[in-house]
From TrEMBL:
GO cellular component terms, A-Z: cytosolic small ribosomal subunit
InterPro entries: NA-bd_OB-fold, Ribosomal_uS17, Ribosomal_uS17_bact/chlr
Pfam family, any one: Ribosomal_S17
Key words of the record: Ribonucleoprotein, Ribosomal protein, RNA-binding, rRNA-binding
Record PANTHER family: 40S RIBOSOMAL PROTEIN S11 FAMILY MEMBER (PTHR10744), SMALL RIBOSOMAL SUBUNIT PROTEIN US17M (PTHR10744:SF1)
NCBIfam families linked: PRK05610.1 (NF004123), uS17_bact (TIGR03635)
Protein family membership: Belongs to the universal ribosomal protein uS17 family.
One function term, GO molecular function aspect: rRNA binding
Name of the protein in its database record: 30S ribosomal protein S17
GO BP term, example: translation
Length: 88
């Protein structure tokens, strides 16, 4: 049998909500090719991610990685903040 590569999935996305304690909602965008017309379409997926120190704000671009489940819907954690949102 061949060994399976256990690489940790890491994605980047924009924080769309930080109203929960130690949890943020991250929107990740990807391009999908339409099967018939061939046009690339934007698709978004929302993930709940663990933010240990409550450092992320809405509009920040963050890198999140897959980890053990923290709750029913939360199995991602913040790795780093790639870009801070401008203060309004």
């Amino acid at each position: 049998m061949s060994e399976k590569d256990n690489k940790v999935r890491t994605v980047a996305g924009r924080v769309i909500s930080n109203k929960m304690d130690q949890t943020i909602s991250v929107s990740v965008e990807r391009l999908v090719k339409h099967p018939v017309y061939g046009k690339y379409i934007r698709r978004t997926t929302k993930y709940l991610a663990h933010d240990e120190d409550n450092t992320c704000n809405e509009g920040d671009v963050v890198s999140i990685s897959e980890c053990r489940p923290f709750s029913k819907r939360k199995s991602w954690q913040v790795v780093e903040v790639l870009e801070r949102a401008e203060a309004q």
